[in-house]
Amino acid sequence: MPEHHSTFVVDGAQRAAKTPPGFKAEVAQLDTFKLPDRATGSLGDHLLGKALIDAWRKDGIIQIAMTDEEKKLWDDAKAASQKFFRQPHAAKAACVDSQSYAGYIASGEEVTDGIADYSEIFTITKDLGPSDPRVRAGWPCHGPCPWPDSAMKEAMTRYNEALGRQGEKLLGLIEMGLGLAPGSLTRYTRDGWHHTRVLRFPPRNMTNGKGKEGRGIGSHTDYGLLVIAAQDDVGGLFIRRPNEEEKFANWVKSAAGLREDDEGWMFIPPVDGVHTVILGDMMQYLTHGFLEATPHKVGLNTRERYAFAYFHEPSFQAVLKPLEGGCGGKLDRSAKDDQGIHYGTHFTNMFLRNYPDRITTKRMVAEGRYSLLDREELRTMDAPATL
């Protein structure tokens, strides 16, 4: 499968130099996959899908080569994020919305396992104006994205749209690799609740003292289907490989903080021109654990670090049910789940847990919006909002 598969070799000394101080970890040497312009269902696409799945099952993470267009979009988005984060705190703090969880998150505001994280974030969610029926009906997490200016909005939107196309392509390839009928996964992403975390991490010696020394983000798994990420040349990402002795089910019990100080972490060195892709809770749930959500964390390095994490997600209204076919017959079809998981509730719970003191959380509680998640229209894909 040479047309879709290659390997980047990074000098060992260079990789080791980028490992954040105070962390012991194996340094990953990952294959990099080149995705086709369009997945057509060819034999090559099926083989590529199987190779991607094998890599996720072995390492918990893959690298995919950026196209020239994606590299330009990443450079533009990174420049926009650097410009934003270098603004005075008051200007950044003004970019907050009380209905959505979009906008600015100060260093120390996000909490993982009860401990403040040092990540500084701008979250991009669906940008829904006041006339949108879902916003008018008070749906949890629905509202505008409080952009600081049109230049940042344009750069981030164009990059997000490109990653959305890659996300759909990856889901199609996963369907082929698992032997699933077309649409088994992508049927859930109609009007997907895709969103992005634009991230800055301070140098480890220039924090505000609210969190844990050297820790950028505590260990956790992500809540959706796919996370497509890019990082600058500084380095700070660690992941845990799939392990039969370590099982997480974040939708049953929070995985935040688990194994954070244990041995067995793998450092993911920066490689120019690639996206990394890990799997989230809903992919694990759908495949009965055949594909697992990847535990990961971020360590602070000696320089500030910029990164970008795009979440390719189901519809907020989707109720997911475990798959009944594929994986070469290796799915546990005896595991019945008649209730399924409502993605909107799963997403909302994660943000409530991470931002207990945010204005959005306080308004949701004060106005009783959380109870709306039980309404049938919020649990039926494409159903219109009613007032």
Can you put this structure into words, describing what you see?
GO terms for molecular function: metal ion binding; oxidoreductase activity. One of its GO terms (biological process) is small molecule biosynthetic process. This is 2-oxoglutarate-dependent ethylene/succinate-forming enzyme. Belongs to the iron/ascorbate-dependent oxidoreductase family. Residues 192-314 form the Fe2OG dioxygenase domain. By secondary structure, the protein is α+β, with helices and mostly antiparallel strands. The chain has a single domain, classed as B-lactam Antibiotic, Isopenicillin N Synthase, Chain (Jelly Rolls), CATH 2.60.120. It is 27% helix and 19% strand. The chain contains nine helices and 18 strands. The strands form four sheets. A nine-stranded mixed β-sheet has the order 1-3-4-14-11-16-9-8-5. A five-stranded mixed β-sheet has the order 2-13-12-15-10, with no helix packed on it. A two-stranded antiparallel sheet has the order 6-7. Strand 6 and strand 7 form a beta hairpin. The chain is globular, with a radius of gyration of 20 Å. Residues 6-17 have low confidence and may be disordered.
- Proportion of residues in helical segments: 25-40%
Shape: globular
Distance between the termini: 53 Å
Q: What letter string, H or E per element, gives the SSE order?
A: EHEEHEHHEEEEHHEEEEEEHEEEEHH
In the predicted model, the low-confidence regions spanning at least 5 consecutive residues are 6-17
CATH topology value: Jelly Rolls
CA-based gyration radius: 20 Å
Strand order of the biggest β-sheet:
1-3-4-14-11-16-9-8-5
Q: Main β-sheet: number of strands, strand sense, barrel status?
A: 9 strands, mixed
Using the 3D structure, state the CATH architecture.
Answer: Sandwich
Average predicted local confidence, pLDDT: 92
Number of strands: 18
Number of domains: 1
Count of helix runs: 9
Alpha-beta content class = alpha+beta
Strand content: 15-25%
User: In the CATH hierarchy, what is the superfamily?
Assistant: B-lactam Antibiotic, Isopenicillin N Synthase, Chain
Q: What is the CATH top level name?
A: Mainly Beta
